Amino acid sequence: MSEQTPPAPAPAAAEPLTETQIADLDELAEGAPRVGIIMGSKSDMETMEKAGKVLEENGVIHEIRVMSAHRDPEMVAEYCKNARMRGLKVIIAGAGLSAALPGVAAAHTDLPVIGVPLSSRMSAAGGLDAILSVAQMPPGVPVACVGLDNPRNAAHLALRILSA
After folding, report:
1. 8 lies in a domain?
2. Which member of 46, 115, 117, 133 lies 3.0 to 4.6 Å from 143 by CB, making a disulfide possible if both were Cys?
3. ∠ CA 26-28-29 to the nearest 5 degrees?
4. Predicted confidence (pLDDT) per residue in 108-159, tens digit
C-alpha cells in the first residue's frame, strides 16, 4: 500500500506593491527603457518610430516592439504585466482597424497607456474605426488617445507623464 502525499497548498494571491517596493524596482531598473512603444504590425513601424525619435531627442530611453493583440494576445499580456518590473513608466500602443492593442495593453498594466490610432488602406472612413476603438474604452481600462497617425504627440504626452 503506497502513501499519498497531500496536495501542495495553493500559492497566495499576489499583494499590491508598496511604495517602497516600487521605489526598489525603480532603483533596479536604472538605465532601463522608460517608455515602451508597441504596435500591432511591422507595417506600422515607419509611423511609430516617429514617437521613438521624439523620445530620443529628449534623452528618454525607450524600446520598440511589434506584437499583435489578435495574433498573440499572450505576448501582449506578458509584456504589459512585466512592464513596471522592467522599468517602464509609460506604454505607447499604436494600432489600426479594430485597434485593440491599446485597450488590451491597458487591461494588463497599471501604467499609463497612450493609444495611437493608425490608418491604413483597409481603414473605414479614413481611420475612424481605429479612433473609436482607441477612444471608447470600458470603465476601469483607461487609454489616453492622441490623433490619427500622430505618434509624435503620444511621445510628447509620455514626456509630460514622465516629468509629472
Report:
1. no
2. 115
3. 65
4. 999 999 999 999 887 778 899 999 999 999 999 999 999 999 999 999 999 9
**CATH code at 50?**
3.40.50.1970
The answer as to whether 71 is a domain residue is yes
Instruction: Count structural domains, the chain.
Output: 1
Q: Which domain holds residue 75?
A: 32-163
Give SS3 for 62. Answer: strand
Nearest-angstrom CA–CA distance, 60 and 122? 33
Share of the chain above pLDDT 90, in %: 75
Identify whether 25 is part of a domain. Answer: no
pLDDT tens track for 9-34: 444 444 555 655 555 555 555 789 99
114 membership: H or E segment, kind and range: strand 113-118
Number of neighbours of residue 128 by Cβ within 10 angstroms: 13
Where does the chain have alpha helices with state H? 19-28, 45-57, 73-81, 101-107, 128-135, 151-163
How many separate helices (H) and strands (E) can be counted in the chain? Answer: 6, 5
